[in-house]
Batch of 2 targets.
Target 1
Amino acid sequence: MTSPERLARAYLLRVAEPPAPALLTFVAEHGPVGAAEAVRRGEVPEAVLQETSARREIDLAERDLAGAREAGARLVIPEDDEWPAWPLLSLDVATGRGAEGVAAPLALWVRGAARLDEAADEAVAIVGARAASEYGQHVSSELGYALAEHGVAVFSGAAYGIDGAAHRGAVIAGGVTVAVLGCALDAGYPAGHVGLYDRIARRGAVVSEYPPGTPPARHRFLVRNRLIAGLTAGTVVVEAGARSGARNTAATAGALGKVVMAVPGPIGSAMSVGCHRLIRDAHATLVASAADVLETVGRLGTGDAPQPRSPRRRTDGLGPQALRVHEALGERRGKSPEGIAAESGVPLPRVRALLPALELDGLSERCETGWRRARTPPPRS
Amino acid sequence: MTSPERLARAYLLRVAEPPAPALLTFVAEHGPVGAAEAVRRGEVPEAVLQETSARREIDLAERDLAGAREAGARLVIPEDDEWPAWPLLSLDVATGRGAEGVAAPLALWVRGAARLDEAADEAVAIVGARAASEYGQHVSSELGYALAEHGVAVFSGAAYGIDGAAHRGAVIAGGVTVAVLGCALDAGYPAGHVGLYDRIARRGAVVSEYPPGTPPARHRFLVRNRLIAGLTAGTVVVEAGARSGARNTAATAGALGKVVMAVPGPIGSAMSVGCHRLIRDAHATLVASAADVLETVGRLGTGDAPQPRSPRRRTDGLGPQALRVHEALGERRGKSPEGIAAESGVPLPRVRALLPALELDGLSERCETGWRRARTPPPRS
């Protein structure tokens, strides 16, 4: 038995092209069933009419839900436990602030094994250009792999290039990845990724707010981007040209108060121009590794992402005068303290005091002709 | 006739290993001639004695000055018009703040056609790793070339790798470049750059605070770095490993209140790790072009460095509803306004109003079966 709420939301998803902020508010006030009734009759405020009049007579809710079931998909609605209410709150808040075009979805069509709320609990978006370079695709799939391996769900837009590589990396790691589409689940777009959707659905999910049969369109990709930004803690742009939908996702993420990150690349690469501008002009955080991403979204300190440490030199702890004395020492021939003082410019009494101190550190040694650098440095603990 | 001030400073430059903040203050109080006399006699405060006792009996001032003359070099002292007093003020200010190891130089040995004060007037430092990648060397020489071509003097440390490439780029552009050494002008170091020094000196300058015969040493490179940072408006790090002297120059530049910039690179390159950390952790400004560098140090707006503009789409000015209507239009077959309304989700009356508006923009056209996208877009003014 399909609940009336689910039927009502399936109907409304087909009637109103998202985002539909006026309808969303109307549903919040009257509940989905009452709101759907009013929309059907056309007895709604002008703003809601604007969003619903064109398609309000089309009611395919029963058929859409049955078709989804057949295709192994489901309609996740805010009344379900699975609804990712917490991350999507950012969209409500942004709408309240008057940000245009970022209303929350009325419901989401979902296919896949993952629970949407659990996937969104620790999630990062990896997005970027379709016309990605080999470098970008490599970086994207490595990032997807490493983040998935650390238990982070990788969200992306399922496009060719950076998006696909990120999904693939996460799939190979056996992790959770979620594809959010700008068309219906059954649109078969892009054609080359239909097989990938099946692999994603095994542990992750394919998600869309568009009813069955909806074809892709540029404005739908832009609208979809708010979901990718909203459902995750932060967005990583791997490659983006001077104009790129990925930069739109990044801008939306920023507007929603999420973390915006970008991967740098060679400055001669047109595909890194967008990333460099994001870092330079929009203060996106530069990320050069999965560890950087985890640190930026605040997962560090859990012990599972050690930061690489700078290599240390044996002379690192020395003060400026000790360093100068050490530099003045010969590799083979010993030198007198007087000679070392003249060469280093360090006063003779200080040289006399520093030489034995360096010896204790294993950095200098006495020989017949005076002092020289130690030959066999002891292992450092 | 050599002035007593020049003789005194030549003597002090050999006596005190820079930086010598106590001696610098002592010279400011007593003048170079009086200060040199007191140092010779050892009648100076304890802090000055620390900096001068080891070598105060060595007086080769006459010989050093004569040797420099023969080699086509000169000693530039604060009493000269050529002294770059204004940029070096940053070192005095930093010393006053208690920053260690950044005292101004007592004088500078200079070889080359450029006046030091004029070169430092509009100057940028380009520094980086010796073990630079091909990418890094290419970027460095291109940056050096472009900045020199814009009348900016390119300062660097004359090392192999990034430094040498920056000098070379500026030389090829016929511009001014200044090499600041961590050894004497006559040390012949690094051996492979002796010929480059001659080319630099033709229009630029080779500079050192070390008296003739001083060999290179690691601590001298670190000390020299403060001059590169101090003499320029900003420092660009092109490539740097996890540990790199270039990062030291950048840190010093930051401490002196100068602009710190870094060039990104492929994240897999060990030679870009230092740059990425500078941008990520130390808030260095990402620069991906000479135009970025000029903008960052504040030369933009002079009209000689136009920023590349984003390409524009013909649909850029459209609102969300117009965009949706435009997307719903077919390329060949015309559609009815009713069909377009259903497909786009835009209310029919709005569709009827938007279609002629799109026609005026050259984006839609009427045909026998309804409306479709315009086939021959008119040129956009």
Target 2
Amino acid sequence: MFAVCCEAHTTKVSRNANIAKLQAGYLFPEIARRRSAHMLKYPEAQVISLGIGDTTEPIPEVITSGMAKKAHALSTLEGYSGYGAEQGEKQLRAAIALTYYGDLSIEESDIFVSDGAKSDISRLQVMFGSNVTMAVQDPSYPAYVDSSVILGQTGQFQKDVEKYRNIEYMKCNPENGFFPDLSTVSRTDIIFFCSPNNPTGNAATREQLTRLVQFAKDNGSILVYDSAYAMYISDDSPRSIFEIPGAKEVAIEVSSFSKYAGFTGVRLGWTVVPKELRYSDGFPVAKDFNRIVCTTFNGASNISQAGGMACLSPEGLEAMHKVVGFYKENTNRIMETFTSLGFSVYGGQNAPYVWVRFPGQSSWDVFSEILEKTHVVTTPGSGFGPAGDGFIRVSAFGHRGNVLEACKRFKQLWQ
Amino acid sequence: MFAVCCEAHTTKVSRNANIAKLQAGYLFPEIARRRSAHMLKYPEAQVISLGIGDTTEPIPEVITSGMAKKAHALSTLEGYSGYGAEQGEKQLRAAIALTYYGDLSIEESDIFVSDGAKSDISRLQVMFGSNVTMAVQDPSYPAYVDSSVILGQTGQFQKDVEKYRNIEYMKCNPENGFFPDLSTVSRTDIIFFCSPNNPTGNAATREQLTRLVQFAKDNGSILVYDSAYAMYISDDSPRSIFEIPGAKEVAIEVSSFSKYAGFTGVRLGWTVVPKELRYSDGFPVAKDFNRIVCTTFNGASNISQAGGMACLSPEGLEAMHKVVGFYKENTNRIMETFTSLGFSVYGGQNAPYVWVRFPGQSSWDVFSEILEKTHVVTTPGSGFGPAGDGFIRVSAFGHRGNVLEACKRFKQLWQ
């Protein structure tokens, strides 16, 4: 007998084949990686990030005070609280229902408070399981597709078309006004739809959303509607899918404080699952989501929830509108710049994202060229889906000085 | 043609059959429901909860100050931060590695900071997917089994034996010293093991854990080791599975600040996935966990993470030890009470849980009798698995006055 010295032990557990299907890195860590590499190459450069969509402005004091107060209270006998309800504090659920769904008969008990939309998307996917089919806008926020792959709802990635098998990609481009031609979309169980859209910045109109709800109804589909940018809407596009009659029987809405109050690091969001939404056997979807939330989650931080309460006070709401207004002004500067340079520019009006067309060019090439020549980080459109190729997403989240400096560099590059 | 008026629309999406397998409610919400019903029935009663295991003592001021300071900083230009790394702040990961794994060659990059152990258990299950088999201690914390059911790793619940098909239940009872007889345990891909154990309060010895690691190694299994109560250990039982030689090639460790600093509502935990742990094809498990964390999570709240940093300062560590000491004193009182009443009492020495035997009785009956006659909420042992029947878990999380009052009532009931 010879003992085999020093050979590494390997378990006999098979790697989850669904995770192996995922392509390269999740988009934003990949961009962060390239940004770091660029900074190593140009240690002197003043790199400006208009890439990941991360808020940069301080949280209004009225909101941070609410959180600091809660933190202090936790060190007192009267103010201490341990586990809260997994679904969130009653008071906060009620305030969200009243503030954002006051006229829409959404009740406190329909609201599930969370640590953010990304986590809730994944919890929804865990709830749906691996036997559902799904559709996404193309382009779209990568977490929809990636979580679907992880749960095993898809087939392999097909390199030639840059799509996963078994996902219905609903093309959204300037030619169709960024709203899919539903007559060509196959029926799926789940439809992810984000409006105002990340990345295109486009908000669907009432008429379009009415068609979408009817489409879901006709197909017996569940619509997962991501409204994380609703406060950025400046025209009369619906702020919530539940403004559309009948939506409660077909839709779930996911939303977040991240882009309203600068809560990207504080972590607070919510999901609305109306009691009227039912599986084919009549079972209420909300009951299963409640079970998922109670089993796989322990509620958002009580300090973040105190922040949410402060956000929804009259002063908090006013402060959030100012934050949103600041980023909207950034958006205007970016739109003006690209428009003046002769580009075809989309989005911006109802969202903090500007979607710029570079006809016939690869998004990653444009991303690299912009980074190399201006030290500005953007996001390549193809990172959001194949129909995003030939576009760049420019985020309006940045200090004013940085945004103006980036615009100046864009002008130097292309003028 | 007759239009059917007012009939409720139902989608054509099939309910996830795995969720339908789950039995009744998740344990703790079910106990909360019964507690509420009891309070309706006896509105005058002073109900004392030694049930859910929820911390009751204020968070030490040195820790809440750290969080309040961070909250205030977020309202300043210099102190603001948006999205952090999904894996947690570098500084906090380093401090966890140093504080809890200083001698064990666990590196900062092996630590994934999270919003708590329950969320991480679910993320681990999503990573493993539906094709793995799993073992749990019987009794055990319900989230292991329930998340396994949700992911589709199990068969149906068998009412006659109170077990799910396809889960290996490793019986832990006084007869085997609360450590499973591994010679009778079938090989599974994943082994969940909690020590100090929730609910039995028993900590495995170094010798037992050495056998467990060897068992996992021989079987090519992955051990998911839950050490959320490690700071409660008062003898020389290992505080971490990584104290056992070779564990890094077979184990993941999940832990939490909840029971050390009263963070049940603040939400902060961590998971250690060593680089040495590999799937059967040699692929590092940590790489997949990193991908799961980046895709389905956006990091723990930055304010909670500031709290974690404060916890790991010299003053914070001292303060946490006091909190733990306070609950340990509660535990002693509860143990003394039941021992003096002639019960067989287990746990307590290394955990804030006391496990009391009621031979031949149903746990839910005992739970109901105690609640009815003393207005004290406990937890029925059978809620943690069939081998927990005939036991009651009494949690030591409570104000001293309440614990003493509960002990008094127990004495009145049984003396």
